[in-house]
Design goal:
Number of helices: 11
CATH architecture of the largest domain: Alpha-Beta Barrel
Helix content: 25-40%
Strand order of the largest sheet: 7-1-2-8-9-10-11-12
Shape: globular
Number of strands: 12
CATH superfamily of the largest domain: Aldolase class I
Largest sheet: 8 strands, mixed
Number of domains: 2
CATH class of the largest domain: Alpha Beta
């Protein structure tokens, strides 16, 4: 097979068990149209190739400073002014310790599928496959469609994790190529949804209904953030959606702090204002939604 569509990817991760049924290889795409402050993949928000800096790995050798004015050393400590960086990745190339790393690469869809297909034996044994996430995968619609088409040709089960705010025509273009849609349902209050994510909630609900009406298999993935949406009204709305629409059910995605450390490496944020819930709290949320008649999605489906 010749060249295929090129997309911007920041990770291809095998042996994932939280991104759909079975054991999966997850493809992470760059670029997102939402700005959720709790995002656990902040390296997927920007469509640009970024530089991650891990201070604990830095040997203060000065090689990056020799090729890029954004890097300086004061009192024996390395400093990185990202706004001044215009070296095109030369600083990453000369870093001997891995303190600097490029986040994102332009890859052809066929090369990504070849990497995914290496795990076919695990897919076959577990009922797994490929999941495309991000970022928001519909931000790269042509690349997404090509990935899904190639997976279909290889008989690899595919699903996408989406925030539900993609363009309707982009969802329509992949209906016959996607085995499962994992759609985030983040916030019920319309004003809060717009203020927190930067996108209206109406488009998400409309796209969920469109996917269901089109016969797609849909699961509601519900990130629950303590102090933000762990409230009765939101839990009731989740339950009502699973009763009103032919979705496979809901899945709670409790906040975890992994995204906070990754954001700091990208120079984006300080400490997270959120706290990860304990197992008992998550079980209480789950039980509350079930008590309201919500249908839970089972891993065995």
């Amino acid at each position: 097979m010749g060249k295929t569509v090129t997309g911007r990817v920041f990770s291809v991760q095998p042996f994932c068990v939280d991104d759909g049924p079975g054991i999966r290889t997850t493809v992470y795409l760059k670029g997102c149209n939402m700005r959720c402050p709790w995002c656990h993949n902040p390296e997927g928000i920007s469509p640009l190739i970024e530089v991650s800096y891990i201070e604990s790995r830095c040997e203060n050798c000065g090689r990056c400073a020799a090729v890029c004015e954004a890097h300086t050393s004061k009192n024996g400590r390395h400093a990185f002014d990202r706004d001044r960086c215009s070296c095109g990745g030369r600083d990453v190339a000369v870093c001997p310790s891995g303190a600097l790393a490029a986040v994102g690469a332009d890859l052809e869809a066929i090369d990504v599928i070849r990497e995914v297909a290496r795990d076919r034996r695990f897919f076959d044994r577990s009922g797994g496959g490929m999941t495309v996430t991000g970022g928001e995968p519909t931000m790269q619609p042509e690349f997404l469609r090509e990935l899904l088409a190639l997976a279909k040709a290889e008989d690899i089960h595919s699903c996408i994790e989406t925030n539900g705010a993609g363009a309707r025509e982009d969802y329509r273009a992949i209906l016959g190529l996607t085995d499962l849609f994992l759609v985030d349902y983040k916030l019920t209050d319309e004003a809060q949804h717009a203020a927190v994510t930067g996108m209206p909630s109406a488009v998400v609900l409309e796209n969920i209904a469109f996917l269901c009406d089109s016969g797609a298999d849909v699961v509601l993935r519900c990130p629950v953030i303590p102090g933000v949406n762990d409230v009765e009204d939101h839990f009731r709305a989740i339950a009502e959606l699973t009763k009103r629409l032919p979705v496979g059910g809901f899945e709670i995605m409790p906040y975890h702090p992994l995204g906070s450390s990754k954001a700091r490496r990208l120079g984006k944020d300080g400490p997270s204002p959120y706290r990860a819930p304990d197992r008992e709290t998550v079980e209480r949320w789950r039980a509350e939604i079930l008590s309201m008649g919500g249908r839970e999605w089972g891993r065995g489906l």
